[in-house]
Structure formats: C-alpha cells, structure tokens
Amino acid sequence: MKLPSLPYTPVHWDALPATEHQGETGAALWRTLNNVDVRMRVVELSPGYLADHWCDRGHIVYVLEGEVTSELKDGRSFIMKQGMGYTVSDFGDAAHRSWTRDGARLFIVD
C-alpha cells in the first residue's frame, strides 16, 4: 500500500461520528477517516455480529478489544484475539467475512 500525500493529522477516533452497518446478524459501528483511496476506521462489532457479505477487499486489521473470527469462503477460519490481526490484499486470497460472539473492537486500514 502506498499512502497518498497526507499532512500530519491528529485523530481522536472516539470523537468521529459513527455510522451503523447492519450485518446478517448484529451491527457494526464505523468511525472512519478517509484519505483519497485509503480508508482508516475503528469498527465496533456488536455481540452476535455476522457480516452480511463475503469481502474481497484488502485490509490491515488489528484487534483492539474482544475476539473476532475471520472466516474464509474456502472453509478456513482464524480466531483473532486482542493484540492480533491479519493482512490480505485485494482479491489476494479467498473472500472473507467476520463474526463475533461477544463483540469486538477493531482498527482497520483498507
């Protein structure tokens, strides 16, 4: 990933407005900062959240709190706990989606 030109930008993530995105079950609250083609966000997944789609977009994901399972369309799955995360490129592997039993808070760059 090459970051486009960006001035030094302090960000208070919790002060950014939240947008709600419904999952197949549960919801995700996104606090998003966009810079041209790079989206940076803190995402809070509600307990019982299951994404409503399979995603082919590349991400850098870091689990701030909780536990989330990243499920790949080819059947693999990975449990990510606080302090863990993953990277994947656009169309770089099988499509993926996330779910959590108890809720989670993530930092995502894509």
TrEMBL record:
It comes from the Bacteria. This is Cupin. It comes from Methylobacterium frigidaeris. The lineage of its organism: Bacteria, Pseudomonadati, Pseudomonadota, Alphaproteobacteria, Hyphomicrobiales.
